[in-house]
Amino acid sequence: MRKISLAIALALLMCFSVVGCNGQDASLEESPSGEEVSEVETDVTEEGEDAGLQEQVMVERLSKEATTNTISAELKEKALEMPYADYQTLPDWYGTTIQNKAAYGTSWGAPHEYTKELVDELSEVGFNFIRVVVDTRIFYLESQYGEPGEHFDGTSDYVNTEELRNLDDLISWCIDAGIHVCIDVHNTPGGYMLGGDEEASRELLFTEGSPEEQMFIDYWEFMAMRYADVPNNALSFNLYNEPPFWVEDEQYTNLMKKTIDVVQKTSPDRLIFVDMLHYAKDPCYGLVGEKVVQTFHLYEPYEFTHNLVDDSESAKTAAIREMVTYPLPAISAAVRDDGYVVTGDFPAGTVLTMRIDEAKVGTELILSADGKKVFSKVMDQELVDEHRLVPDENNDFCVYNEENPDAISITLTYRLEEDATELRFDKKGNDGWIDLNSLKIKTDTYATKLDAVWVDGVEIPSTRATVDENGFVTVDDKAAVYNYGKETLKEKFQEYKDFSEETGTLIMLQEFGNGVFCELNCSVNLFDDMLSLCDEFDIPWCQYNYDGAEFSIVATSDEYRRRGATYEKLSSGREICVEIRDVLQKYMK
What we know:
Layout: E1 2-5, H1 6-22, E2 41-44, H2 49-61, H3 64-67, H4 73-79, E3 94-101, H5 116-125, E4 129-135, E5 140-141, E6 158-159, H6 161-177, E7 180-187, H7 211-226, E8 235-238, H8 249-266, E9 272-275, H9 277-280, E10 293-297, H10 302-305, H11 313-317, E11 322-323, E12 340-346, E13 351-360, E14 364-369, E15 372-378, H12 381-386, E16 396-398, E17 410-415, E18 420-428, E19 434-442, E20 447-451, E21 464-467, E22 473-475, H13 477-480, H14 486-503, E23 507-511, H15 520-537, E24 541-543, E25 567-569, E26 575-577, H16 578-586
Parallel strand pairs: 3-4, 3-24, 4-7, 7-8, 8-9, 9-10, 10-23, 11-20, 12-21
Antiparallel strand pairs: 1-2, 5-6, 12-18, 13-16, 13-17, 13-19, 14-15, 14-18, 19-20, 21-22, 25-26
Helix pairs in contact: 1-2, 5-6, 7-8, 14-15, 15-16
């Protein structure tokens, strides 16, 4: 038999009748009339034991401490002086992303705690918007007492008020600095984006009726309650970062609508951002008319923006690091009858690494240097079997086919024995064909990568590429018209703008950028192209990210400095990449 107090029972009734209906808070210390309630205890039968536990959980989750922020009334009044924002009105925001609480158990490259010094830095650079990446688990405890545990079990029984107060502090400092805060969930039980197996761990969140779904909705419910009195001028919510490719419109819309409903129950006018489908790439038509702003992420061309991000640490820290050129040269994968040709100065000892993902079994790849055959390899059945590739009825194989879940690319390596100025790749075999999906060239002075490019409905001309003494790649005029640069990015912007105008849904670019391993000049060009398009299409923007390691513009360590960049100290003593900062400030109005 368990005992619960009448005070808790009354408080529970208040949570349902007051909080559930109009979002006002219910204190455990007062009765509905405001008078003190005595701690009169009553018996609960064994059958009511679980219900009693659940009541305690609900009271704790909706307690005054959990649902009342510590931001001062003066700052809330000051927030009203910031630009107004709602789903129909977006200010000229220029922002960045901070990741202090991005992944449970790690600060993900940034100091875990939000500090006034961080906000001072953001203000010093000129940002007026920050996307605050969070992991919902950080704001819960495993038990009523103590810190989040190592083996967090995914319950939302108790909120972590210490972490919530630190978030309150961040919002307070940002209001004082005139910076809008957008809280964005990257990680939640059943839906991990950072620090885990992304695809394998994201199914439970999108399983209707699952505990993981409910915990996600619970999180946004109490967050909406906690910040109900903070104006939209200062605070917005981005519900979930980058739904995976396999989540389609109806499934995603279902979860988002449930979450939107609990937020709007308490904060009917709260500005809500919802990422587009398929890693924030494709508009979600199921959410049109839901009084939300849809956000897109643009990391194109991916071969450039994510160069080396997923590679080994040795590849990232090598004295000579592989580079990819931006604008991305239009390289054809197909080795055709007229060959695949790369010119430049290739001294003896140059290492060529060839990746083949698609071909017909039996086709031979032939490499010539200055007209002399120096290397060949037949895509025979033994090689195909070794790489766990399953040819189709036409004897063609492809790494990306569903029939080949365990397949790996065929990678061939050759070291030039003599100096050369022309490398030529040809194929041989009856009706044979072969795709050279990637070619890496490494000399004593540079390393570069030529990745194949696909353009919908276009057959890119045979590769005729030139590599200069620094490793930058150019292609001949016939292919150059298909280079991935500003004009290609503009087509993407136009697609999003068309969606916005057709549906009346406002949009925002909430992630773009590139890894610190990209060539500096190319990075500056990409940032400038992206921001000039935001300016042209009148779309507010937020780059990824400020001080979160592999994409950061602040040097969190020597490993994450952009090579060749100038770094300048901020007032805090930390250093920022001058070249990237300057192009960002160029577009801050």
